[in-house]
Write a structure and sequence with these properties.
Elements lengths: L1 E4 L10 H15 L4 E4 L9 H9 L2 E8 L5 E9 L2 E5 L1 H4 L15 H12 L4 E5 L10 H6 L3 E2 L16 E2 L1 H6 L4 E6 L11 H9 L3 H19 L7 H4 L9 H7 L3 E4 H9 L1 H6 L3 E9 L8 H11 L4 E8 L3 H6 L4 E4 L6 H6 L1 H16 L6
Helix pairs in contact: 1-16, 7-8
């Protein structure tokens, strides 16, 4: 049997390559003769650069930028064939903050990383969005690239409460000769009931009252950047504008084109051809839930498997959807580590428990011949 193993990272416990290795190790305990191929995946969020570097090679440059709350952090920029890949989570990710402070967290470091990529000679810059601790509408990124305003742009959304004017012309000029691609992990808009703040603000630390307040501040910011009319505000209403707390919006204002992060990665690693050459596709992530729909790795891998007429199964830390929902996402079956161990135990030794799960699942999907 030929098995393609194409997982996402498992939260903060396993990178995508580590998860793929654990699944393969466990599977081989039961089915040592199966042919297993690793194809670590990402959707624009954490792990993007590692996955693309494994697939394309290229040069890795490490630059120091300002983290979400001001401390210096390293960011690795991948350069391959004239394209630079920037993973925004390395500069403003949730894993970089010990105490969540979404009112003051800034995307300034992402702008610094983009500037470094351009200065290094890239003619095309792909910015992966996802896993951010920020909700500043990309104001910090604009500031790092030269934009100015009548309030600080690099101090989080709280500083935008009274914004009246923003001049993005210097930032636009900074990137004038560069093709800008936005690899988003979600297709939410910036504002409103289904926008970035309402959807993701609470997990970044915003209270219900702050969600309403921050959304109002970002609305003022949009008017200051774009203008008040519906036509002028169109970038804020576009799908992907709310990715990474509004980084998508700022990058679109600078001329960026939004693409699906998982589709970009799938094309780069040749996932369609790989799926067709295997009998079974295995994907996975830390928590398989309703957020695993469009834009996320599991959904994207399942879609590729379906197009190749191959079954797709999910191995996850936790499974929080029922069989009807998973089949609607194109998934045949899903299995969780926490079916046998507690969440605390699974996070204590994630690779071992994921490998154990893979061994059990292999008994179902790759049964040994009788005799």
């Amino acid at each position: 049997m030929r098995v393609l193993v194409a997982p996402d990272s498992f939260g903060g416990t396993l990178s995508a390559p580590e998860a793929a290795r654990a699944i393969i190790e466990g599977w081989r305990r039961h089915a040592p003769d199966d042919v297993l191929t690793a194809a670590a995946m990402a959707d624009g969020g954490p792990g993007l650069v590692d996955v693309l570097h494994a697939a394309t090679g290229g040069r890795l440059d490490v630059v120091t930028v300002r983290g979400p709350l001001g401390a210096d952090v390293p960011v690795t920029v991948l350069h391959a064939d004239g394209t630079a890949y920037v993973e925004s989570a390395q500069a403003c990710g949730l894993h970089l903050v010990e105490a969540k402070d979404p009112l003051h967290a800034s995307t300034y470091g992402v702008g610094q990383a983009v500037a470094a990529a351009v200065d290094a000679g890239a003619s095309r810059v792909v910015v992966g969005l996802g896993g951010s601790a920020t909700n500043d509408g990309g104001a910090g990124l604009l500031a790092a690239l030269g934009a100015t305003a009548d309030v600080p742009l690099d101090a989080g959304p709280a500083a935008l409460a009274h914004v009246g004017s923003v001049d993005v012309a210097p930032a636009v000029e900074r990137l004038r000769a560069v093709e800008l691609v936005v690899a988003a992990d979600v297709d939410v808009t910036l504002l409103g009931m289904f926008g970035a703040t309402k959807t993701f603000g609470p997990q970044k630390g915003l209270t219900d009252a702050q969600v309403v307040e921050v959304d109002g501040w970002l609305d003022r910011f949009v008017v200051a950047v774009c203008g008040p009319s519906p036509a002028q505000r169109r970038p804020a209403d576009a799908k992907g504008a709310g990715a990474a707390g509004g980084l998508g919006f700022a990058l679109m204002v600078l001329g960026g084109t939004v693409v699906s992060g998982i589709e970009l990665v799938a094309e780069t690693v040749g996932l369609t051809a790989e799926a067709g050459a295997h009998d079974l596709v295995v994907t996975g992530e830390g928590t398989y839930d309703f957020s695993s729909r469009a834009g996320k790795v599991v959904h994207g891998v399942a879609a590729v498997a379906a197009a190749a007429a191959r079954p797709c199964i999910v191995l996850a830390g936790q499974v929080l959807v029922g069989s009807r929902e998973m089949r609607a996402m194109g998934v045949e079956s899903a299995y969780g580590v926490t079916e046998r161990v507690t969440v605390e135990e699974s996070m204590g030794e994630p690779a071992r428990h994921l490998a154990d799960l893979a061994e059990r699942v292999a008994r179902t999907w790759s049964p040994r011949p009788l005799g």
